[in-house]
Amino acid sequence: MKVWHRGHIGDARECRVPLLDHGLLYGDGVFEGIRITGGRVFRLDAHLARLARSARAIGLELPLGQAALADTVCATARAHGAPEAYVRVLVTRGVGALTLDPTDCHEPEFYCIVADIRMFSAEIRARGLRLATASQRRPRADMLDPQVKSLNYLNNVLAKREARLRGYDDALLLNGEARIAEASAANVFAVVDDVLVTPPTSEGALPGITRATVLECWRAGGGQAVERPLTAYDLTGASEAFLCGSGAGLIGIASLDDRIIGGADRPALAVLAPAYAAYAARHGTAF
Ligand SMILES: Cc1ncc(COP(=O)(O)O)c(C=O)c1O
């Protein structure tokens, strides 16, 4: 695992995080999770554009321009070396006073971590995910807008923890209106009457890069796809459902709260998985 911090690339164990960094004290910062596949960084520009939008949303100035950020990601990926890996880019508000007032934080801290990818096991991929509905809801846009990929992931962490403690693989988070927002770290898709359906971001979904890629690939193959609100009823009635994300990849959902979804074969995923791989080969940044 390699880390870029303050202009140096080193091992993760050597990296020192300042104690008074507001990212550590308050989750005051933004991040990206990016997949490296086939020796290429997947849709790096799209990820850095989302990072810039997240930063603007919380009034945080990125310490480097887009080109310099991209160079940093590629340099860290080269140091790590593996053709299949996971990148975590973090920008925190930086060191300030021991108060939540951020006006003393003058220098944002930037970290880029490249690590081996930790995905769901081959066994879970084969059988499909067993999801549990989380008891806590996804925050509304007038709280902390869920489109901001901020370091405040406690809601997601607790949802995942709850699901794992109850023996499930992952959590499904509903929004305040009891409609589906997303999973703990992935977007949700269902196939309803041969149409690919995913909740719009206004329902509490992150504007996922993998989600956008899935929509593009499906439509390019002549399929119909819509963004519309989804309920648990829609999901359990779907002929097929899956999650997608930079870390999760594309992975089928077997059940929600022990209610079986679709059949063992997943025809949409069977089409989308190779389409996604081909897309990654075309839209990756070599390092
Ligand atoms: C809450 C949440 N939703 C969705 C996603 C999927 O987004 P992407 O495909 O851009 O990785 C992530 C990714 O980590 C996430 O954290």
Describe this structure in words.
This protein has 287 residues and is α+β, with helices and mostly antiparallel strands. The protein has 2 domains: 2-115, Aminotransferase class 4, branched-chain amino acid transferase, N-terminal domain (D-amino Acid Aminotransferase, Chain A, domain 1, 2-Layer Sandwich); 122-282, D-amino Acid Aminotransferase, subunit A, domain 2 (D-amino Acid Aminotransferase, Chain A, domain 2, Alpha-Beta Barrel). It has 8 helices and 16 strands. The chain has helices at residues 22-26, 44-57, 66-80, 122-127, 154-165, 209-220, 232-237, 267-282, and strands at residues 2-5, 8-11, 29-37, 40-42, 85-92, 109-115, 129-133, 170-174, 180-183, 187-192, 195-198, 224-227, 240-245, 249-256, 259-260, 284-286. The strands form 2 sheets. Strands 7, 8, 9, 10, 11, 12, 13, 14 and 15 form a 9-stranded mixed β-sheet that branches. α6 (209-220) crosses α8. The longest helix is centred in the C-terminal third of the chain and has 16 residues, at 267-282. The chain is globular. Residues 33, 156, 182, 185-187, 206, 208-211, 245-247 line the site of pyridoxal-5'-phosphate.
In terms of structural class, how would the helical and strand content be classed?
alpha+beta
Average of pLDDT: 96
Q: Name the CATH superfamily classification of the largest domain.
A: D-amino Acid Aminotransferase, subunit A, domain 2
Count of DSSP-assigned helices: 8
Kindly provide the name of the CATH class of the largest domain. Answer: Alpha Beta
Task: Compute the number of structural domains.
Answer: 2
H/E element order:
EEHEEHHEEHEHEEEEHEHEEEHE
Largest sheet: 9 strands, mixed
Contiguous uncertain segments of 5+ residues:
none
Helix content: 25-40%
- At CATH level 2, the architecture of the largest domain is Alpha-Beta Barrel
Strand element count? 16
Gyration radius, rounded: 19 Å
What shape does the CA trace take? globular
Stated plainly, the CATH topology of the largest domain is called D-amino Acid Aminotransferase, Chain A, domain 2
